[in-house]
Write the structure tokens for this entry.
Amino acid sequence: MATMKTPGVYILEKNAFPNSVVEVATAVPAFIGYTETAVDGNTSLLNKPWRITSMAEFHTFFGFAPTPRFTINNQGTGNTGKDDPVKAKLKEQVNEKLKTLTPPLTENAISEVINTEKEALLTALTAKETTGMQARIKKDVENAATAIEKEIVAGLEKELKEKLKKEALASLTEKETTAANVAEAVAAAITTEEADVTTVTKLATEEIISQIKEEIIQEILSAAAPDESGNEEAKDGNGTAPAKANEKSEEENLPVASSSFKIPVSTKETYTITPCTPFYTLYYHMLLFYANGGGPCYIVSVGDYNTKPDSQAITDALGLLVKEQEPTLIVVPEAINFGQDECANIQTAMLGHCGQVMQNRFAILDIWNGIDLSHQSKSVKEFREKIGSNHLAYCASYFPWLNTSIITDKYLSMDNLDWDIFNLAKDAATNWPDAIKSVITEYGDKM
């Protein structure tokens, strides 16, 4: 109490009550997701809300980032590019299987082989992968199977035409090469090989058979026509013009389906390195949070990077935050890495937690597939339909996604290549450009 230096009447007030207005944090987020570790010394922090105030504390309790994964893809030029590793592996398996079948091959037999080998390869590649990566691999395998089936059918049709053409030319050895004689010879060849024509052509209709006939006739007549110098082109003993020295033999370009098959030879290649679809991205969101002035927050780790992602584990973690009074924001950055329906289920649960259970929290949501700006109206519409209409006052959604520079090239090396898939090309390393052939072998041996 102050010293009284002059006579008078003084009033002394006592602090009987605390201040009527108390300052509290209004933006304390709680992040739910997967981390490298979740320990405090010897105590597990798995499925336990844990308060941190800096990225250094996150490193201490929850570890660091997952290893970024990339794969090498072949873009090719038209039909001249080499097969990507997945297609090359599937083609190899299909080839081996087709060699055991008795010709002529039917389309049903070809489809059955491709489907069987496709499922076997898909199972092998996705056994240890996350949901997001499994979807990407499945798409690659499906595309490869479709492309291979087209190659096979086209190859069989090409072989058939060459066979019919050869037979027609053989019957013309003592006849003049006129349109009428050629048409008669081709028709006779088609009748003789009727079984093969019916088996190989997709639809053994008169229209398709007539088309094949016309194509062969035109090829024979064109080959028999005199060149510009007035001389007929020389023909071999079978009546066909020999291949020029700088031309590849037809056999080099035959697709799958017969004993004479060889993988098409490529002359031009374009390769790109693309990131695999990541799932465990919480660490990068935390980097952005603290790089932009983040402060105290809560982390709920539901598993490590070896844990198979489970949307139910995420929604269950919301219940763990009920007894925590400080968090005001709920954030699940990895929700969009699940499938669309699972993502919607997680976001609906977040709305229920904020608007029904707690009624004092706010959910931050991302729009699934928000990176696809070419279909942004569709993405937004589906997002609104799937999260429903309940508790929308307790959330905000962000769109579109933003590109960031959290990971720079100094953190990347050959060790970041997705060897689980890329090793499929190692056995066929001689088919890859010299620039990466030695790298495949060197680093593949280390993995």
